Amino acid sequence: MNRNLLSIDDLSRDDIERILSRARSFAEVSGREIKKVPTLRGRTVINLFYESSTRTSSSFELAAKRLSADLVNIKSAGSSVDKGESLKDTVQTLSAYDPAAIVIRSPHAGAANLVARWTTASVINAGDGKHEHPTQALLDLYTLNRRRGSLDGLKLWIVGDVLHSRVARSNILAFTRMGCEITLCGPPTLIPREIESLGCEVRYTLEGIEQADVVYALRMQHERMTGSFVPSLREYAARYQIDSRRLSPHQLLMHPGPVNRGVELSSEVIDSPQALIVDQVESGVVVRMAVLYELLAGGPGRAAAGALAPEGVETEPQPA
Amino acid sequence: MSAALDRAPVPPGNLLIRGAHLIDPRAGLDRIGDILVRDGEIAEIGEPGALEAPGGVEVVDAEGLHALPAFVDPHVHLRTPGREDEEDIDSGTRAAAAGGFCAILAMPNTDPVVDTASVLSALRRRAREEARVPVGFTAAITRGQAGEQLTEMAELASEGAAGFTDDGLPVRSAGVLRQALQYQKLAGRTIALHEEDPSLSGKGVMHEGAISAQLGLAGIPAVSESTMVARDAALAGYEDARIHIQHVSARHTVEVIERAKAAGVQITAEATPHHLTLTDQAVMSLDSNFKMNPPLRSEDDRQALIEAVRSGVLDCIATDHAPHAREEKEQPFEMAPMGVTGLETAFAALHTDLVLPGLVGLDLLAERMTAGGEPFGIPATVLKAGAPANIVLVDLAAEWEVGEAGYESRSTNSCFAGRSFTGRVRMTVAGGAVAYRERSFAIGAV
Questions:
Q1: Is the Cβ pair A109, B217 closer than 8 Å?
Q2: How far B194 CA lies from chain A's nearest CA (Å)?
Q3: Residue B388 near residue B265, CB atoms below 8 Å
Q4: Helix, strand, or coil (residue A48)
Q5: How far are the Cα atoms of A12, A77, B216 from residue A124, in angstroms, in the given order?
Q6: Interval A288-310 mean pLDDT
Q7: What secondary structure does DSSP assign to A192-235, as a single string?
Q8: Residues of A in contact with B215 (CB under 8 A)
């Protein structure tokens, strides 16, 4: 595996399967009363968030802590970023603390790639603009895999604002790599031209959605609702909202959160047993533990340079 | 009336260039020969070894090299006044000379904008002190390039403006452009147009297509350019005015220009080396040195541009040399400014990617690279007795890596950085005097 996780494209199918299986073993630890393992003791993880985030930042924080890493959280507000420091200077400053990993969330595509150029730490992309959000895709794979077993041949419909969604882009890459068939569905104004080049199908109506095994609804962002992308929220909901009429009993429902109740999803489907939305959040911690583990301690030669814990401890997660 | 060009004073050159392979389709030259330059003019072109060097004439041994008429670039950003940290007249014209250019036109989107006679005359004064090759200065079409009120175009023309352009921005209002075209009857000078429809370009940062879809970057569709060119060609035809389309990037635009030319519209157009050699595929790297406006487009668009350079629908090559400070380019793609440098790499890029694969002949490339002044009344350079000495010596076999030895430009934002090119400029004679010699190029003086 690469030193960094910048894009799902960095991962082979084997890499993905290794991360998922590692996440499963961490899930066992999560079930215990003391959830910590010593793998990353004495190593530093920096969370550098240039965009507000609840789920991603808190789950990375928990993941690092459960691996016993020292954690520094930096949000753009109130930091030197606020004082106009460039990304490069910020990264070089933080790198002076010799972090093992920098987790970066940025409103701009390619920010994680740049950070990787300026630091020797492993860089994890926690969302860059509308480009990618690879750990979200991994936790989605993990969640679905737990519920359904093999993902090969599963039909996944991704519904909503694909144009502005980094989750959609990472998921198209990740689910395709694992053998799923992807259909994108949304208003033509919110489906990017030539997105089919990623190997998915495009539909502009929900007709045929009953063929899907999984319906993955995307968040309709407030600022898009007022622009000219859709004439009105009412028309959007009428055409694209997943409700109990449109969701068949055999189908599973996913959403990256936070949900706009009554817009992309109706309340009854959110609360239905078909919805995996809470499972997705739960998976966030173990999958991000697995990613940190694989990047910082997992590869050959890395375990030795890895944790300060006694030999043998760092190769498999064990309760502290 | 041709545009005024300025340069720092230099004594006229006296040279005997011996044994170069002379290429100039306009002069019907494609053979080995000698060129004698006396007092800045080409005095004689003779058979190899036939010409004697009179006293005081430097002999340049050019065996194994090719001599072409030096290039003319109608589209350069010298960043002066305002951003002398990125480029100034001295460094920009050094870069031009190193690229084989003997004349360039500077764009007016500086700070302040070149929209008054006083800014223009101050620039011209500086060029007469600093410029290594002759420079012409264009002035803005509208005040502050705001697209609303015409500049004092007649006065600017009498002060020596080489042409008018709001480059960097389109003239959004058809009504304003129409008035500028009408006013051309008084002011003269060609109006050069940066073409895009802001309502279609939106917040786009790259070509709209499969790559922008994959990267989640907002796209600039090709129709943003072609629809504006169609509008402006119609206006120019209606007003019987002369326009020049800058940095054409898309197949559909080429088709629009071809139709306009066939209909008799006075329209010329340029293409850049980067649009002729790169595509949006390069943006996959998210390297901001592939960010420029118009953006790198699809392979189909690139092929259409190459064909149009061959057929003459595109009249000339322009670099759109656009220096940017390192700290501005070292940002995420969406935040980085648009533009790349190009003067020092233009010939090598086109020779490597178009001539060597057989897409464009060297003679045709020479013709297009020397024609950049024609839309503005500056005659193409020529290797002919009696003509001013504008000569570039190139080594077509030399391989070099872009940026390895640094740049003459103050900025380093080349989209070809790190590329290996075949073909290197060894010497440039501009306006009768030697403007550039490559360090490794041995010369023997008499």
A1: yes
A2: 25
A3: no
A4: strand
A5: 16, 21, 18
A6: 66
A7: -TTGGGGT-EEESS-TTGGG-SEEEEPP--HHHHHSSSSS-HHH
A8: 109-110, 131
Q: Per DSSP, what are the bridge partners of residue B356?
A: none
The correct CATH number of A134-279 out of 2.102.10.10, 3.40.50.2300, 3.40.50.1370, 3.40.640.10 is 3.40.50.1370
Which stretch of A75-79, B71-75, B276-280 has the lowest confidence by average pLDDT?
Answer: A75-79
A8-133+283-305 and A134-279 share one CATH topology? yes
User: Mind telling me how many Å the CA of A67 is from chain B's nearest CA?
Assistant: 31
State pLDDT tens for residues A54-90.
899 999 999 999 999 999 999 877 676 667 789 999 9
Q: CB within 8 A of A55, min separation 6: which ones? A: A257, A258, A281, A284
Measured torsion, CA atoms of residues B85, B90, B95, B101, in degrees rounded to the nearest 10: 140
User: Residue B3, by phi and psi: left (phi above 0), alpha (psi -120 to 50) or beta?
Assistant: beta
Tokens at residue B13, please? 């050159």
Confidence of residue A205 (pLDDT cuts 50, 70, 90): very high
**pTM of the complete model:** 0.93
CATH 2.30.40.10 boundaries in chain B: 15-67+388-437
Q: How far apart (Å, rounded) are the C-alpha atoms in residues B102 and B246?
A: 20
Cross-chain Cβ contact A129/B217 below 8 Å: yes
Q: Which amino acid is at A176?
A: T
List C-alpha distances in Å: B268 to B246, B343, B372, B375. 9, 21, 10, 6
Residue range A8-133+283-305 in CATH 3.40.50.11010: no
Sign of CA dihedral B407, B411, B415, B418: positive
Instruction: Give the pLDDT confidence score for residue A231 in this predicted structure.
Output: 86
Residue A247 structure tokens = 């969701």
Q: Which residues contact A64 (CB under 8 A, 6 or more apart)?
A: A40, A45, A47, A71, A292
pLDDT digits (tens, 9 = 90+) for B355-394: 999 999 999 999 999 999 999 999 999 999 999 999 999 9
pLDDT above 80: residue A309: no
**Contact yes or no for B210 and A194 at CB 8 A:** yes
Q: What letter would DSSP give residue B142? A: B
B215:A87 CB<8 A = no
CATH class of the structural domain B15-67+388-437: mainly beta
H or E element at residue B317: strand B316-317
Chain A: residue whose CA lies nearest to B221: A193
Q: Which residue of B has its CA nearest to A198?
A: B214
Catalytic residue of the set B315, B320, B353, B395:
B320
Which A residues 59-98 touch B at CB under 8 Å?
Answer: 86-88
A199 interaction partners in chain B (CB closer than 8 Å): none
Side chain identity, residue A207: E
Outline which parts of chain B fall under CATH 3.20.20.140: 69-376
| Residue B80 predicted with pLDDT over 80 | yes
Which residues in chain A have their CB less than 8 angstroms from residue B214's CB? Answer: 169, 195, 197-198
B206 vs A: CB within 8 A: no
Pairing of strands A201-203, A181-185: parallel
A30-A284-A165 Cα angle (round to 5): 175
Domain ranges of chain A: 8-133+283-305, 134-279
Is position B320 annotated as part of the catalytic site? yes
Nearest C-alpha in B relative to A166: B216
Q: Domain B69-376: which topology?
A: TIM Barrel (3.20.20)
Please report which confidence band the pLDDT of residue B443 belongs to, taking 50, 70 and 90 as the band edges: low
Asked whether the beta carbons of B415 and B323 are under 8 A apart, the reply is: no
SS percent in chain A: helix, strand, coil, step 5:
40, 15, 40
Contacts of B212 (CB under 8 A, 6+ apart): A192, B204, B206, B218, B219, B280, B283
